[in-house]
Specification:
The structure is a homodimer. Chain A is α+β, with helices and mostly antiparallel strands and about 200 residues long. The first copy, chain A, has two domains: about 140 residues, Jelly Rolls (Sandwich); about 50 residues. Helix content of chain A is about 50%, strand content about 20%. The first copy, chain A, has nine helices and eight strands. In chain A, the strands form two sheets. In chain A, strands 1-8-3-6 form a four-stranded antiparallel beta sheet. Chain A has a four-stranded antiparallel beta sheet with strand order 2-7-4-5. Chains A and B meet through helix 3 and helix 5 of A and helix 3 and helix 5 of B. The structure holds a DNA duplex (30 and 30 nucleotides).
Chain lengths: ~200, ~200
DNA sequence: CGTCTATTTGAATGTACTCAAAAGCGGTGG
DNA sequence: CCACCGCTTTTGAGTACATTCAAATAGACG
């Protein structure tokens, strides 16, 4: 149970896609819980079950995968108004493949799997909302996949800076490199070349 | 309007995720239309609006993007029991970024955007179904993205063969190369090395 | 059998990676 | 205020994975 005041960003976010009645809203807030994390804390750990669907009120997180060689691959960042978690783990309540960690002090609204199922029954509009959200996320992910297949590292970096100028300033460069799928050294070289070319 | 007989694969597919009443089923079939395509025909063309969500009854299709250099990048294949189209274009009814083309004679069930919206209102269970389907597609896509970020071309190819043995046999090798994000020449070399190693 | 398309092979090239070391930067304590 | 520490970024040399281009070979279909 969370107050409408605290949950305002979530309510505004939802309102951009579907209309919620007052009744719907109170059912939603009844199932939400609010939790704060410190910088560095894990919201999901590889191997654990992802217990929550998380809406970001404030802060910044990364979702990443650690491969056999111990190398970290950043799958996505999440900032204000984004949802995060390990969706595969959450849906099937199976061990997570990915980690979600806070890059800043972070404030989340959390929904458990069971509560969300109940909400879907009580408030079909919310099921509609999540259908729309996931569809949009899917479309964005395809676009990213295509970028990885058809663009050079340099072009991908330029695209990233245009698309997420806010994230670019909040996150260390070596993480952006990991997100783009290149080494930190190589991204550094790309940047120095771009700087030269622009001057 | 399509007969339950023809739509049986779709009905069985849906039944794996949600229960549909007889009433629901007839509303669904009332909005479906059945269309056959020849090998080589386009279901969606880059620049056109994607008018349908397509369920594959039989056949095989590829979704691909043509970049500025004229190079083709295969985003996905679709075979029996898969959905295909350009989702971004379909949702917003905006020009498609991608092409969908038949690699074999193909039989589809099609739903227009407007009809699907009506269906969502009439049959909330179908909205639920599509939420689940898209979530699963999203999870699969993340897995593919991680594979592209963390595996070598060789490992990606081996993974592909395990995961889609059926597709591997139906599709020319140079398209698989494009799907994996490597050149056809390099995939050929990978294959010859694998053949050597196994003998 | 001939033609068209798909696959293989090889040499030269390039993009991005590894490893190692140096330089920059922010905070903390003396 | 400066010195030091840890963490991030930069730079460079050598290397590897994958590409390009060109040509040869293999398969499919009429």
């Amino acid at each position: 149970m969370v107050s409408p005041d605290i949950a305002r960003p979530l309510l505004e976010h939802i309102a951009r896609y579907v209309p919620l009645t007052g009744e719907d809203t109170s059912r939603l807030l009844a199932k939400a819980s609010h939790r704060k994390y410190l910088k560095g804390q894990y919201v999901v750990q590889q191997g654990d079950v992802c217990r929550f669907e998380n809406f970001v009120l404030s802060g910044c997180l990364k979702t990443f995968y650690v491969d056999e060689g111990g190398q970290e691959h950043i799958i996505m960042f999440a900032v204000e108004d984004w949802w995060t978690g390990d969706l595969g783990s959450f849906l099937n309540q199976t061990p997570a493949q990915y980690n979600v960690q806070c890059l800043e002090a972070t404030s989340l609204l959390q929904f458990t799997h069971d509560d969300l199922e109940v909400l879907y029954r009580e408030v079909p509009t919310l099921e509609r909302f999540f259908r729309i959200i996931v569809q949009r996320a899917y479309v964005a992910l395809v676009r990213r996949l295509v970028a990885n297949l058809s663009l050079s590292a340099r072009e991908r970096y330029m695209g990233f800076c245009e698309q997420y100028p806010n994230i670019e300033r909040r996150v260390p460069q070596y993480m952006i490199a990991s997100y783009l799928g290149v080494t930190k050294e190589f991204l550094s070289k790309i940047r120095s070349e771009l700087a030269k070319g622009e001057s």
